[in-house]
Amino acid sequence: MVRRRIPELLAPAGSLDAVRAAVANGADAVYLGAARFNARDEGAQLSLDELGEACRIAHERGRRIYLTLNVLIKPAEVVDALLFLGEAVDLGIDAVIVQDVGLITLIRKLYPSLEVHGSTQMTVHDSAGAAVVEALGVRRVVLARENTLDDIREIRDAVPNLGLESFVHGALCISYSGQCFMSGMISERSANRGSCAQSCRKDYVLTDAASGAELDRGYLISAKDLGAYEHLPAIADVGIVCLKVEGRKKRAEYVATVTRTYRDLLDRAERGEDAAPTEQEIQPLVQIYSRGFTGGMYGGRQGRDYVTRTQPDNRGTVLGTVVGYERGTLIVEVSQPLQVGDGLGFEAPESVGGPTVGFSVSAVRTLASRGLVRQAIETRTRVQAGWRVVRTSEVQLLERSRASYASLPTAIRARKSRLDVRLFGAAGTPLKAVFIADGESVTVRTELTLVPATKRALDVPALREQFSRLGETPFVLGALETDGLAPGLFLPVSEQNHLRQQAVEQLMVKRDWARHAALAEREMRVRDAVRDVDVGSRATEQDSGKFRLTAQVYRLEDADAAAAAGATEVCVDPFLRHPAPPVSRIKALRDRLAERGIALRLRTPTIVRPEERRTLDKWLELGLPILSGHLGLVSELAREGRDVIADYATNVFNAHTASRLFGFGASRIVSSVELTTHEIAALVEPWRGAGFDVLLYGRPEGMTIEHCTLSAAFDRQATTCRDLCVQKHTNVELTDPAGYTFPVATDSACRNRLLHSRPIDGSEFLPSLWASRIRGFHLLFNVPQNDVGEIVGRYRAALDALAAGSAPDVASVRELFGSEFTRGHFARAV
Predict the structure, then answer these.
(1) What percentage of the chain reaches a pLDDT higher than 90?
(2) Strand pairing of 388-393 and 373-378?
(3) What strands, in cross-sheet order, belong to the sheet with 417-425?
(4) Cβ–Cβ < 8 Å for 658, 675
(5) Coil, strand, or helix at residue 569?
(6) How confident is the model over 681-708, as a mean pLDDT?
(7) CA distance linking residue 585 with residue 592, whole number of Å
(8) pLDDT at site 236
(9) Cβ within 8 Å of residue 123, ≥6 positions away
(10) How far apart, in Å, are the Cα atoms of 368 and each of 203, 212, 241, 723?
(11) What pLDDT shows up at residue 41?
């Protein structure tokens, strides 16, 4: 029988216990964060000492360790991040998972033998994006969770030498990873910096902005957990090389349970057994942690069932109902008997939000077990009859999970280096010993000479016993060579011990000096590499009085208003909302603007899945200059000779990332919307501002979501319900519990783009941006509004003043917005 080739199983770990759980339950590799610079900043990371032990545990059993360095790196952090990575390399990591393009470039230069994996935060979801990361030297990339099996097949065919990794289980981000700016805007906790505030897990109200009618409410963008167990054979057959389990913030018991389940299912798939797992086999996954499962988008969009709707967190297992409460005893009827130690939650019949009352079972007795099990639980907590009984934790499952990894080492063992010893000597000469460890060696001799033995002569067992007594030293005895030692000789044990001690002391001093020298050399190489930014042939001197003011619009009437008010360039996004305008109208707009001497630019979607590329190509045939937040498109179109500006969604945080994008052919770069003015200044300094733009006004796309909240509200299938967004509810909004309202644009691919609740106004920061020699400014108009011309005109006047050497009238801009604006991140660091 031909065995199917199955992917590597990659398990998460946020603690050393979780590493033990993953390895003991069949993970081929473990990914984890250590101390800093990873996308889980709330305790779900190991210390460097723990990282060393994790590598030992894994390597002793033939497994691998991948370090997450998957956040965007600010200019001031680049050196520190690379030195930190060097420490992790010394401890034995097998690969590093990275988001930041510039950091990838530097890692390939400084640590060329280290395997680099592209994070899902890179938003690779098509062949163009995959080709870019392959060109960067990435060995493997984690694809977007939204990719279907057909998408993956197409990407696989386009980049056959790039390893493709995909998530198989765990929490789902509702937004495309790497494209969530909502958390940072709301709370200064950036999802791109490991500090996501879980904005998607709030309850929202969906309303029609025009009529005010409520269309839906609940946890409308809280995705269920991914459980792709039914897709495993198909995923293996499509060419995925690694299946990734999410959960670095989860407990070790979760890691053990999920890893063991998927190990067993993958082993079954390897044997060619393609039957879907039974409900009983999946029950441990449901119980250990679940918001409810979805198979994800491997088979296509899931519609209404993709989100939890009624609760944002772990649900557990619904077992039955409360029957009554009598004298300190709660009577329940459940489908499975409860045990002492089980955690219980209780939900009102019509409740939304999950269990509101709960406790741990301390005493329980069974009253009857015909069909449903009737049990009496001792508790002072009164729960009304009819409420649902939810088992939030199962003591027996937790005990089995802990037992599965109990035999693995728990203590952090001191890291030991192999110590090889070679001995030389003859009668009448001192014993000469050469001690070798970590590439360093010392030679020592005894004070006493060797003499012929009268009783027990020196032999290998006796010598090994003495020289292996290395105690708390950082060494462990390896090879002991005695070919140069004559037979039949004697030397007192005390002299042998003294020789060993002398050698170890000298070797430690020599090794420490070598270590300090190596670290100093590494730091020098890192600082030199970070300082050496390739600015290419781009001019670094800017005409101080010439600027570009780009108005980004989706309505054609706004394009004309912006041009009339002083925009030097107009950028149109025909994909933002249904229906897209006819191509003929875009051509007419281009011609009208050309008569004014104003260029028209086309903004592409940030997400272009393989099946959507044909539609985009029709627009690209217009031959217009391009603005794109899609890294793959930036590179591809620039290679074709197009004028392409890399938009803020390409996440340019540091000069090395900018250098790579310029190297790909980007004509200009819009800096990340998550940088402060000081950080922007550091970003653009190597080019003295040349080639950089800033988003000065407007609502960034806080999330880009494959799920459509409007179609889900009406339980319709996305892409077949365009009457909703085109005719009945053309302008909808989501309102959070704090009362902030987020416009929702349903784009031409039936994808939701959640816009920020208030527009950024960066007018007060114009002088400092101008002082950094930035001369490109973007104003973004992506919601219906009547003041486009007025806003463009005021910003144009401010820029004209700066160009003339005068102070801009910032107040005249600000008065347009009253209190309905945000300063964005210009002064608020993430």
Answers:
(1) 87
(2) unpaired
(3) 440-449, 430-437, 417-425, 475-485
(4) no
(5) strand
(6) 96
(7) 10
(8) 96
(9) 129, 144, 176, 177, 178, 179, 606, 607, 631, 649
(10) 40, 53, 51, 55
(11) 57
Q: What is the distance between the alpha carbons of residues 414 and 558, in angstroms, rounded to a whole number?
A: 67
Residue at token pair 């039936």: 750
Amino acid (one-letter) located at 163 = G
Cβ pair 679, 658 in contact under 8 A: no
692: confidence class by pLDDT, cuts 50, 70, 90 = very high
Residue 707, pLDDT above cutoff 70: yes
CA atoms of 429 and 448, how far apart (whole Å): 8
Alpha-carbon span 232 to 270, nearest angstrom: 10
Q: How far apart are CA 775 and CA 687, in angstroms?
A: 12
The CA-atom distances, in angstroms, between 288 and each of 114, 232, 291, 336, 392 are 35, 20, 11, 16, 8
Name the nearest CA neighbour of 420 among 470, 462, 459: 470
Quickly count: other Cβ atoms within 10 Å of residue 666's Cβ: 26
Are the beta carbons of 556 and 781 closer than 8 angstroms?
A: no
Residue partners of 371: CB distance under 8 A and separation at least 6: none
pTM: 0.93
- Three-state DSSP class for 582? coil
Cα–chain center distance at 446: 58
Q: Which of 139, 152, 168, 146 is nearest to 64 (CA)?
A: 139
Could you tell me which of 80, 144, 191 has the C-alpha nearest to residue 607? 144
Q: Residue 582: exposed, middle, or buried by beta-carbon count in 10 A (0-12, 13-18, 19+)?
A: exposed
Closest by Cα among 528, 825, 526 to 680: 825
d(CA 638, CA 460): 69
Query: Average pLDDT, stretch 643-672?
Result: 98
β-pair partners for 752: 705, 746
Q: What whole-number distance in Å separates Cα of residue 750 and Cα of residue 828?
A: 33
Check residue 410 and give its pLDDT. Answer: 85
Q: Residue 420 to residues 59, 465, 480, 501, 506: CA-CA distances in angstroms?
A: 21, 14, 6, 14, 15
| Token pair 């004070």: residue | 447
CA angle, 631 then 636 then 641, to 5°: 125
Helix, strand, or coil (residue 395): helix
Q: Are 697 and 675 in contact (CB under 8 A)?
A: no
Question: What type of residue sits at position 526?
Answer: V
Rg (CA), the chain: 32
What is the C-alpha separation between 319 and 297, in angstroms, rounded?
29
* Range 105-108, long-range pairs (CB < 8 A, 24+ positions): 105/136, 105/656, 105/657, 105/659, 105/660, 106/78, 106/82, 106/529, 106/530, 106/656, 107/82, 108/136, 108/137
Contacts of 260 (CB under 8 A, 6+ apart): 25, 26, 404
